[in-house]
Amino acid sequence: MDQIVGRTNSNKAMLYHYFGSKEALYIAALEEVYAGIRRSEAEIDFDGLSPPDAIRRLVEFTFGYYIDNPSFVRMINNENLHEAAFLKRSKSIAALNTSIIVKLGRILRRGIEAGDFRKGIDPTDLYISITGLAYTYVSNRHTLSIVFKRNLFRPSMLQARRRTMAEMVLRYLAA
């Protein structure tokens, strides 16, 4: 609370007045981190790309977003440690995350129609797989770097990971 007060030039009384409690403030912060990734995704014209290029762009975007927004990854880690206790109380989180699934469904349909992708891919399951590839690399980068004696955040390693992730997903989708 003290850090938030310091950053916002407000006071605790104002925060409690506006949010009601520390928990409500935390839920609002969780909602905002999810809204941030959705806003950034909305700036990408997936419909203007071929289906394979749209998938490649989504994979690369997701990985890049996690790299550029470590607070997003930390908050999600923290919420997972608490078994989504606060996220469960959000009234808007499900609606916030529907947009990417709808977009991914459109990309998949266009890919099937173009003969690029096979049928039977669930957009939600695919998105979970994409985020899993990106999230694990970013959230575990410190331990994996030690275990495998590699600097996983070296630019050449990040670029190689982007290519690997996109290739894995595109091969999975291939008709």
Instruction: Give the terminus-to-terminus CA distance.
Output: 52 Å
Could you state the CATH homologous superfamily?
Answer: Tetracycline Repressor, domain 2
Strand content: under 5%
Strand count, sense and barrel status of the largest sheet are:
none
Helical amount: over 70%
- CATH class assignment: Mainly Alpha
Task: Determine the CATH topology.
Answer: Tetracycline Repressor, domain 2
Question: Which regions are unreliable across 5 or more consecutive residues at pLDDT < 50?
Answer: none
The H/E string reads HHHHHHHHHH
Secondary structure category? mainly alpha
Seen as an oligomer or otherwise, the chain set is: single chain
CATH architecture: Orthogonal Bundle
Number of domains: 1
Tally of helical segments: 10
Mean pLDDT equals 90
CA radius of gyration: 19 Å
Overall outline: globular
Question: In total, how many beta strands?
Answer: 0
Features:
175 residues, single chain, Tetracycline Repressor, domain 2, mainly alpha, 10 helices
Task: Walk me through what this model shows.
This protein is an all-alpha fold. The protein has a single domain (2-173), classed as Tetracycline Repressor, domain 2 (Orthogonal Bundle), CATH 1.10.357.10. Helices cover 74% and strands 0% of the residues. It is built from 10 helices and no strands. The protein has helices at 2-8, 12-19, 22-42, 51-68, 70-81, 93-96, 98-114, 123-139, 141-147, 155-173. The termini are far apart.
